[in-house]
Amino acid sequence: MASTQEKATHKNNTPSPSSSSSAQVLQNWSLAAPSEDPIPKAASMAALIRPAETIADPPATKTTTSKGISIMPRAQTSHPLDPLSAAEISVAVATVRAAGATPEVRDSMRFIEVVLVEPDKHVVALADAYFFPPFQPSLLPRTKGGPVIPSKLPPRKARLVVYNKRSNETSIWIVELSEVHAATRGGHHRGKVISSKVVPNVQPPMDAMEYAECEAVVKDFPPFREAMKKRGIEDMDLLMVDPWCAGYHSSADAPSRRLAKPLIFCRTESDCPMENGYARPVEGIHVLVDMQNMVVIEFEDRKLVPLPPADPLRNYTAGET
């Protein structure tokens, strides 16, 4: 039976002609005392671990695919077809407002629409080919000597529809959004007005603020309140006033005026968000509101029509046809 020394010697492929060599093998296999360890554990671990802040980011250089096609690492924060971010919308609005001629003009601006100006197709193809994965260089036509890859994409643009309440004018603005840097919160942007034009004889859609103002004006109109009392409605909080744009049927409806014809509905509970508020229309009422000056310019109580009865299921029961 082989001794322990012989087993150790056999595993290390070391001959053991004498007991002195076996003792030497045992000494090599034994663990040294912690005080005699040439590399302390703390020092060895410290050599393997580096603070995270000392690891530098790799430089932004071109890389090559398996097919030998050079591509640029992503250098843009937004794809050309991405919707405008909240930061871009804020910058576009601030840029247009700052371009107003006077403080009165700037304060009268209503921003009806702020949308992305879709870029040309070659810009989209360039982005999908070299800036955003999956990289698809085949989207661009082949050229002699290879394609020229720019360092960044053209700036994005925003289109703004602005209504000036003071002058009753509608204008369209194009703002270029230039990215300064993208270090924090998606980047900081600055805008530049590319073009602006006033579009005559048009009215843009009404915004939420105008809806609220119109409802308040109609509810405070004394003839309207009297007409509601005839129908048994005392609480104005039960009423819903929905302004609808007036159709262009005659010169009286000319788009030079900003007009609305509100539709009236009566709820059964003023504090019930689950109720169908459109189940009980208040009919026989004609109201015309000047939305620019926020005044009722026409009112007629044409016919007393009874309100539909209240429904215990919050006005969701299907009616008979």
UniProtKB/TrEMBL annotation:
Domain Copper amine oxidase N2-terminal as annotated: residue spans: 79-168
UniProt feature coiled coil, ranges: none
Requisite cofactors: Cu cation
GO molecular function: copper ion binding; primary methylamine oxidase activity; quinone binding
Xref: Pfam families: Cu_amine_oxidN2, Cu_amine_oxidN3
Positions of the UniProt region annotated as Disordered: 1-37
Keyword Oxidoreductase belongs to the record: yes
Family matches, as Gene3D superfamilies: 3.10.450.40
GO aspect biological process, one term: amine metabolic process
UniProt keyword Transcription regulation present: no
Copper amine oxidase N3-terminal domain ranges (all copies): 204-307
Co-factor binding details: Contains 1 topaquinone per subunit.
Its EC number(s): 1.4.3.-
Keywords from the named record: Copper, Metal-binding, Oxidoreductase, TPQ
Biased composition (Polar residues): 1-14
Post-translational modification: Topaquinone (TPQ) is generated by copper-dependent autoxidation of a specific tyrosyl residue.
PANTHER family (UniProt xref): AMINE OXIDASE (PTHR10638:SF80), COPPER AMINE OXIDASE (PTHR10638)
Family according to the record: Belongs to the copper/topaquinone oxidase family.
Protein name (record): Amine oxidase
Lineage: Eukaryota, Viridiplantae, Streptophyta, Embryophyta, Tracheophyta
